[in-house]
Amino acid sequence: MIIAAAQISTTENKKENLDKCLAYIRLAAQQNARIIVLPEMSMALVTAENGIKPTVVAEPIDGPFVKALQKAAAVAEAYVICGIFECVEGNEKQAYNSLVVINPDGSIERVYRKTHLYDAFSYRESDTILKGDELFEPLDTPFGKIGLMVCYELRFPEIARQLSIQGADMIIIPAGWVKGPMKETHWDILLKARAIENTVFVCGCNQTGSIYTGRSALVDPMGKILKQLESEEGVISDYIDRNLVAETRKKVPCLANRRPDIYRI
User: Fold this and answer.
1) By C-alpha distance, which of 40, 56, 10 is closest to 113?
2) At what angle do helices 14-30 and 64-76 cross, to 10 degrees?
3) Quick one: which of 69, 148, 151, 162 has the fewest CB in 10 Å?
4) Would you put residue 151 in left (φ > 0), alpha (ψ -120 to 50) or beta?
């Protein structure tokens, strides 16, 4: 199975961003990708500098942005995973930071609402984003089980471990990883760490340009970077063999050797 991650730079213009997402879905499909990943917050650039609030650009799941992605997924005959801002009924101050998972037939399979918000590095995502209350349960696909996390959640090993215990062969992390001292290093190390400690494939699909670091990457269960971009826009894709997960776990049975009976967390 081939997975593709599209590293894009969003703007304040939602239509431009949608057009870019659709173009990269087509490009990934030309590379025979069966799972196509777009970054967190692909809908619009929302920063302290531009003053745009998530509630201004947010849409319901059945809004035009997602409907267009559904049509593109059906044409591509691939799973499409994309980060959006989702309306919260009755809440004029906050939106959900959500991921939609669209089936190859164009139907919506799952919606995951970010549970661990980026209240860090002097920023408070919780001022404008409402946190979700349920972690993603791994999705069974013909290509193996996939788990989802969003950006800052990469810093929480508990999430990745739970996904792996529940059977995930791959963890996909759409992100808008913000630039800053050591931030690129953290991103690279944490992607590899989540792969190594859980013996899973990891796909980190990041935004680039503006305030973001780029460096989207595909990582194998031993922590080897299969493909990675720098700061340019583009698509990376590679063949994912789920048998490698089983082979790696025979060599390094971290999950089998756990001792939950003595843990106190």
Assistant:
1) 40
2) 10
3) 162
4) left
For residue 49, is pLDDT > 90?
Answer: no
Pull the structure tokens for residue 42: 């692909």
In tens, the pLDDT along 191-212 reads 999 999 999 999 999 999 999 9
pLDDT interval class at 135 (50, 70, 90): very high
> What's the rounded Cα separation, in Å, for the pair 163 and 138?
6
Sheet arrangement for strand 96-102: 108-113, 96-102, 79-86, 35-37, 2-7, 234-239
β-pair partners for 33: none
**Residue 251's Cα: distance from chain center in Å?**
28
What count of residues does the chain have?
265
Residue 136, C-beta contacts closer than 8 angstroms, at least 6 positions apart:
99, 110, 112, 147, 148, 149, 163
Considering Cα of 208, then 212, then 214, then 220, what sign does the dihedral take? negative
The tokens 């471990």 sit on which residue?
A: 161
DSSP code per residue over 169-218: SEEEEEE-PBP-TTHHHHHHHHHHHHHHHHT-EEEEEE--STTB----EE
